[in-house]
Specification:
The protein is α+β, with helices and mostly antiparallel strands. It is built from 6 helices and 10 strands, in the order αβββαβαβαβββαβαβ. An 8-stranded mixed beta sheet has the order 3-9-8-7-4-5-6-10, with helices on both faces. Strands 1-2 form a two-stranded antiparallel ribbon. The chain starts with a helix and ends with a strand.
Length: about 210
């Protein structure tokens, strides 16, 4: 009888641990390991007293899933990707940092100049080999006072991304070029995430420190 009672109470204990774990993981978790210990003492009062101790120790590890959002996608053969980018630049209030291989888009150059004129920090790094090709916006932006630099990588700076303020990142295959908009199959995604924004900003700052001033 005593063994049945102990088994029953052990089942209650383990079941309680399972409920506790479910309640904990229902909340937005952070990376951690939680050790849950419990001690159960069964006292039977009779002419003889029996004491049974059940110790159950388990470790549970929860993983944080960030609430990052891809708010928009663009495919250049079915959408006007340049207008989406220009709209994001026009809504910027603090910073627009761009690293792009090819830049020949008048629309996007004008959007960057508007942002600079209203006090947004505009920084641009472009691939040196593409800076002076026909239609390139490098000299136009440089002469307009936009802070633009040439990549110093002896090979290729093949990035195509933009960091906007503290929570927006645009990245994909899409160059800021006429070919990307009108001829090629290109894409980008717009990501809303402070965490991803910080990661791309770190990469941008690495490029910026190494880049050559015009």
């Amino acid at each position: 009888m005593r063994l049945l009672a102990l088994g029953f109470l052990a089942g209650l204990l383990i079941g309680g641990l399972a409920v506790y774990l479910m309640q904990q993981t229902a909340q937005p978790p952070t990376p951690s390991t939680t050790t849950i210990s419990a001690t159960l003492t069964l006292m039977e009062t009779s002419t003889t007293t029996y004491t049974a101790t059940i110790l159950t120790t388990q470790s549970f590890t929860t993983t944080e899933f960030r609430q990052d959002v891809i708010s928009e996608t663009c495919f250049s053969r079915t959408s006007r990707c340049d207008t989406i980018l220009a709209s994001l630049i026009d809504r910027a209030v603090e910073r627009v940092h761009v690293a792009v291989y090819s830049f020949t888009s008048d629309l996007l150059a004008e959007a960057l100049m508007r942002a600079r004129d209203r006090g947004v920090e505009v920084l641009v790094v472009v691939e040196e080999d593409q800076a002076l090709v026909q239609g390139a916006e490098y000299l136009r932006l440089l002469n307009a006072g936009v802070n633009i630099r040439l990549d110093s990588n002896p090979y290729l700076m093949h990035h195509k991304f933009m960091v906007v303020d503290r929570d927006v990142v645009v990245t994909g295959s899409y160059n800021w070029s006429v070919s990307a908009e009108d001829r090629n199959d290109e894409n980008f995604v717009v990501i809303i995430s402070e965490h991803v924004n910080r990661l791309f900003e770190e990469e941008f700052q690495r490029l910026w420190r190494m880049a050559q001033q015009g």
